């Protein structure tokens, strides 16, 4: 008639699935002004680093133009 559960080493784990709590968890604490400022500063530092690396790296990625390709006089036979 009634099925009995197998005994387990930790009985409280077997009973945990039937336990429901009516107590709500506490609300998370709000971040202080210093924490918010620190997060903004970290984000701005990361963004500035990415933009700076892009600005510094752009000349290396550009292709040489016709004005930059100059030959010396020795290579022309003078």
3D architecture notes:
The chain has 78 residues and is an all-alpha fold. The protein contains 2 helices and no strands. The longest helix has 29 residues. It is elongated, with a radius of gyration of 34 Å. The mean pLDDT is 77.
SSE blueprint:
Blueprint: H1 11-16, H2 33-61
Which keywords apply here?
mainly alpha, 2 helices, 0% strand, elongated
Shape: elongated
Oligomer: single chain
Structural class comes to mainly alpha
The chain-level mean pLDDT equals: 77
Rg, rounded, reads 34 Å
Profile the largest sheet.
none
By DSSP, the count of extended strands is 0
Ends: how far apart? 111 Å
What is the ordering of alpha helices and beta strands?
A: HH
Number of helices: 2
Low-confidence stretches: none
């Amino acid at each position: 008639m009634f099925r009995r559960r197998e005994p387990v080493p930790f009985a409280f784990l077997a009973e945990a699935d039937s336990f429901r709590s009516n107590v709500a968890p506490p609300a998370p604490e709000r971040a202080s002004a210093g924490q918010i400022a620190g997060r903004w500063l970290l984000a701005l530092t990361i963004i500035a680093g990415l933009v700076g690396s892009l600005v510094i790296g752009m000349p290396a990625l550009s292709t040489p133009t016709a004005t930059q390709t100059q030959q010396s006089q020795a290579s022309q036979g003078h």
